[in-house]
From TrEMBL:
Organism classification: Eukaryota, Metazoa, Cnidaria, Anthozoa, Hexacorallia
Source species of the chain: Desmophyllum pertusum
Single biological process term from Gene Ontology: proteolysis
Pfam family name, one: Peptidase_C48
Family stated for the protein in its record: Belongs to the peptidase C48 family.
Protein name: Ubiquitin-like protease family profile domain-containing protein
Length: 189
């Protein structure tokens, strides 16, 4: 991920930009993941650096055609690439987008950000793709990751003795420590 300051340095708008950029980043190859946000849906654009001459669009609610908002966002990305490297011939590039059924897809209108994060994790090799039925658990795992400021494995490890957990029961939330496990059930010692 590239923040705005580093992006300005990359395209030469920062003070001593080349020195700063090269001293902070040493990569043979990396992915540039760009969240494409519109009013109704979030999706993901992926660039592989060094350039492979194609862009990937990953959408958890793809239509029959490329959505105009995604097309406009990818056009802006192409403009930025051209600004970074004027030798890039975008006429030789290809755009690749998933179709319905190519990847797990959301079945509601609110999990697009969750799917965009899951796709990003899979693309960088940190997680395996999970099924649509596990998205609710993955959403909860994301909340834990945000709270703890660290990534956890997917699928998550089971409940561990001596660690604290929040449990939702009926309309109440309980926080407590797992003590030990006997025959698959958690019991106090």
């Amino acid at each position: 991920m590239i923040d705005t300051g580093d992006l300005n340095d990359l395209i030469g708008r920062g003070m001593r930009s080349q020195d700063k950029w090269l001293s902070n980043f040493i990569f043979d190859e990396y992915l540039c993941l760009i969240k494409l946000a519109c009013a109704a849906n979030n999706s993901l654009a992926v660039e592989t650096i060094p350039w492979e001459m194609f862009e990937r669009g990953v959408d958890s609610m793809p239509g029959d055609d490329i959505k105009p908002t995604a097309h406009n966002a990818l056009s802006k990305i192409c403009s930025l690439l051209k600004e970074i490297d004027s030798n890039i011939d975008l006429g030789q590039w290809r755009f690749i987008a998933n179709k319905k059924g190519d990847v797990p897809q959301q079945s509601n209108d609110y999990d697009c950000g969750v799917f965009a994060c899951l796709y990003a994790r899979c693309l960088v090799g940190y997680s395996e793709m999970i099924s649509e039925t596990s998205i609710s658990d993955f959403r909860k795992l994301m909340l834990l990751e945000l709270h703890e400021s660290k990534l956890h494995p997917v699928p998550p490890e089971g409940i561990q003795p001596e660690r604290y957990y929040a449990v939702e029961y009926v309309e109440n939330c309980y926080i407590g420590q797992a003590l030990n496990q006997a025959d698959g059930f958690w019991v106090e010692s």
